[in-house]
Amino acid sequence: MPQPFRLTLLTIAALALAWPGESRELSVIRQSGELRICLAGTSAGFYQANAESFARFLGVRPAVTTLADWDQQFHDHEGRTVAEATYVTRFLADGSCDVFPNDLHMVAWRRSKMELVPYYLTRKMVVAHRDLRGDLHQPSDLGGRIAAVQKGTSYEGWLRKLNETILAANPVRIETYPTAESMKRVAGRHAEFTVIGAEAGFKWVRGDLDNLDLLFPVDDVVEVGWGIHPAATELRDSLRGFFAENKRVGSEMDRAWQKQYGISLMEYQLFSASLAEDGLDIQAILTWAAPIGAGAAGLLIAMAIWTRRLNREIAHHKRTAAALQEAQAILAQESAQRLSISHLTVNLQQVRDIHEFGSVLLSHLARELSLGMGVVCVKDPTSDQLVPVAQYAGTGGAATAFGEAEAHLGSLVERCTATGEIIVVDAPERRHFRIRSGLGNCSPASIVLYPVKHKGQLVALLELAALKTIDDAGMTFLRELEPIIGFAVRGVHFAEDSIC
């Protein structure tokens, strides 16, 4: 296999003259026999391995250039980064680079300078010295602290925006270093925290469990991808195909992730599904796990691999055994929820009408949340009214929609539907509601009114009375189900008489 050759920045300048303002389409790349790869950042070795794999996928040799500075990826023709301006970044415009494989966060200002092709989701995470775990819980706690982050990254941008808004009176002191040095400074207490993507957070914290701790997520979920020229449509399609090919256990990128982060790409895909704003990436999971019968087994295998790896770490890091056991318990619970959500997703794809949808959903919720009674109401698009489509009572009796004769919740339902607010009533008073069954009747431990939204619009209402208190884990479960329920409601065909 031919070895990649390296270009100097002087060579880039020469290439700029050879390719004035032209994108190198896939046909040109194949004719030249080389893919021009431009690397930046602390993880350049990891990015290079993935980009060379892409070159092999295209059947060309990799031509690798290492940029002197991360920000050069976004420079205009004058060598400046102008976030608010729209232009094609210099090295893509002049043909010096075909691809920036540097796992770029796809924020709006970067999209105005290149085509970004996504392949995974992430979210910014705060990493701090483990001694600060009890002090730092949310962004407002970062005021007046010292942060170390890599210059020019979205992490630095987020901190500067934080200083201009909620921390304007007590800003973070921002120091810029390469990522490895930032982590070293946090571990040594020369800085108090850093901000990094979830995938890299696994690597750094696992590598120094005595000093580092992964605390809490900040900012919105963001797509991560590679940058190419906006006009390189054939190259874009090939890159999408390359990413799709690598979303399987044992692929080159799957193994590269394992080596870089201590978690494979496919294992990370399972974790990151919970980060998606629209819930699980159902199509990606079903594509990987096809046929459907193998889906649950695939999930269980990945979870077993994850759990086994954590067990090995517990044995190796005895001084942090308690913390790891706690993390393992949380992970096991989250893994069980992922599997439960996967099963429900498959079942909902097979329903024939809105009433069957409500029945399948309530049966699933009854098992997971120990429901005594429940009602699913769906907004009829023809009348814009919420209409009950399924009821559940523990022994099979009819349930009455909350807010009607037996529920006596009064204005709570109206408030829930009007404001979109989730309403939880723990240990409700006797007058609110009583669960009847063949064994007698009792008051529920929790009543939850949960408005389900799809693209910001109310599409359904879950009215749930549980025999056990619905705790934080139960509410998290409902929140993660919401986008799936909303998507399913919109996907069911509403015939004129399908809701009565």
Automatic annotation (TrEMBL):
Q: Which Gene3D superfamilies match?
A: 3.30.450.40, Periplasmic binding protein-like II
The record places domain GAF at 352-489
| Residues that span the membrane, as ranges | 285-306
Q: Which SUPFAM superfamilies match?
A: GAF domain-like (SSF55781), Periplasmic binding protein-like II (SSF53850)
Which keywords fit this entry according to its UniProt record? Membrane, Transmembrane, Transmembrane helix
Q: From what superkingdom does this record's organism come?
A: Bacteria
> Which Pfam families would you find in this protein's record?
GAF_2
Name the InterPro entries for this protein: GAF, GAF-like_dom_sf
Q: What is this protein called?
A: GAF domain-containing protein
